[in-house]
Write a structure and sequence with these properties.
single chain, 265 residues, seven-stranded mixed beta sheet
Length: 265
Amino acid sequence: MLGFGQRLIKMTKINKGWRLLATGLCFLIFGLGAFVLSWTLIPIVYFSSPKGLQRERRVKVFIHYAFRLFVHIMSISGVLTYKVDNFKQLNTPGQFILANHPSLIDVVLLIAFVKRADCIVKSSLLRNPLTRGAMKMAGYIANEDPEQVIQLATESLNRGNSLIIFPEGTRTTPGRKLSMRRGAANIALRAGCDITPVVITCKPTTLTKAHRWYHIPEKRCQISLVLRPKLNVDKFRQEEKRSLSARELTRFLENYFTQELVRYE
């Protein structure tokens, strides 16, 4: 008969094997789901809605619930657990949400808990046949022209959407200092809106830039979304020195998120 230690090792291997299979299935579900939604259900929602802002809003809400379902699938299949603090406040329309970016699924989790979420996406996604339909109908913003991005982002916030941005621009590399781009700061200063910071932790780390989908951790990861008090940017606003203001605000955000991550890790 196997001893307790051997049984524990065997159970751990079985658990990891199941999570590897479940992770692969979740990637497959997401890919197939994106294709089906982009070419069937989202167009139905879009063209059956009244013209104007109602179309955009209904598509955003539809994607929100689709992502919420996908997050539940990941949870019940054992791929991950998640925790969202202050969910109702996070779901308040018209917020400018900035978050750190530890894993591939951060944007999925945020959209799953922000009903009218807008995003700045890679322009390549708008050329990808798998995603372009949904992206365009949802009114997501392509990151092609920086000046146009700022203008469209400001307009989106004024329409009552909650804009989600990862100031790092890409996933965090574990162990490295946070480095943020100035785009988020420029939008906050131009729009004159407060920043809603969300601190995301992922323990143990998974789906970073260095991880393939099959590089799963030894135990199931837990992802936490922590909503922090709003940050007022008025003290950084200098109309005659916008580039300097953006640099100062970006440095502030780098220090802020670095300190917050130390608190929650």
